[in-house]
From TrEMBL:
It comes from the Bacteria. This is GTPase HflX. The gene is hflX. GO terms for cellular component: cytoplasm. One of its GO terms (molecular function) is metal ion binding. Monomer. Associates with the 50S ribosomal subunit. Its main location: cytoplasm. PANTHER family: GTP-BINDING PROTEIN 6-RELATED, GTP-BINDING PROTEIN HFLX. GTP binds at residues 204-211, 229-233, 251-254, 317-320, 343-345. GTPase that associates with the 50S ribosomal subunit and may have a role during protein synthesis or ribosome biogenesis. InterPro entries: EFG_III/V (IPR035647), G_HFLX_dom (IPR030394), GTP-bd (IPR006073), GTP-bd_M (IPR032305), GTPase_HflX (IPR016496), GTPase_HflX_N (IPR025121), GTPase_HflX_N_sf (IPR042108), P-loop_NTPase (IPR027417). The lineage of its organism: Bacteria, Pseudomonadati, Pseudomonadota, Gammaproteobacteria, Alteromonadales.
Amino acid sequence: MFDRYEGGEQAVLVHIDFSDEQNKEDIDELQLLVSSAGVNNVGIVTASRKAPHAKFFVGTGKAQEIADTVAALCADLVIFNHALSPSQERNLEKLCLCRVLDRTSLILDIFAQRARTHEGKLQVELAQLRHISTRLIRGWTHLERQKGGIGLRGPGETQLETDRRLLRGRLKTILKRLDKVQKQREQGRRSRKRAEIPTVSLVGYTNAGKSTLFNTITDAGVYAADQLFATLDPTLRKIELQEVGQAILADTVGFIRHLPHDLVAAFKATLQETQEATLLLHVVDYADEQYAENMGQVNDVLKEIEADEVPQLIICNKIDRLDGVVPKIDRDDEGRPTRVWVSAQNGTGIDLLKQALTECLRQEMVNYTLAVPAGDGKIRGMLYELNCINEQEYSDTGDWIVSITMMASDWHRMDKKVDNRLSHYII
């Protein structure tokens, strides 16, 4: 479908230092992304700007410097540490005479390499097609009307229109398949809720050590490596916790600053494990100097996928790389665990983590008696769907008196959906 310069192994990296915090990126993270994609970094071009240039993203002089660097180093790829518009990408390709990738395309490429399951491949393809759909523009005879004549008559549309039509058809097919996957996952979640099995989801910045921790706790043997986005496909395993019984531990895809919106939308079925979790284990690489900023980025993505209401337990990982730090549990004023200091690599502090998990999940159940007015059928339907009703009867005034036991996260999520009416019905 595309007449593009072929991407190669030798890349020139471009990093612009913006004064605006919203556009700021980390050059070390770009180098990690590039190595994770299997590309050789042969040179870096840096610059400072207040705002992106309309034509080349960088100034015309800097764009020429990039083109000269590409020619001097015999590079066959330019990778920007920022999001480029389709026209900027096209203008740079004409100037540099090689393929130009932005940060979003690079992340999508890594995801395409890592996807293993049918669902993962569908999600990545969906994100790629959405990204490519804005870049279906070329400037040569490919755009001509299809030729006439015997045996050559076409539908009378440009090749670009044909490409767009084919792409829309493929998007519809993928969305249908992903909808089916989502329904299957929803069915699994409903059965776990009926069995009152809590779900604990691992979240965190990419390469924070989530999969290593998952393997240490469950002996699952999932792929774990010191690279960005080693995990794409979610893995679920049962674990046994004292005083709680069985729980489900879910390993999910890592987050990154400015995670492309197409990826968030495509991975909706996967990220729903995080949305519907009883508790989030927020794994943080405390050996990283930017750990506080990374935590903020993860919380931003959680807010975007509407999982910011789910309770969190912060796991301070990689303490084996820190001097004088020992495994421990930090608690709030009420004695509840807030942080656990561990090393997933050598197993230090895992017992403390299980102890904190037990305490958190034990506290995550709520018991209430509600007086629901007869006209509020929406709440009644939602309570039946959650299968959380212990006893029920009707008052003389017609109110539905119901005793419920449910996860605190489900309570807060449901209360938010009905504009806090649940809280007013407690008796």
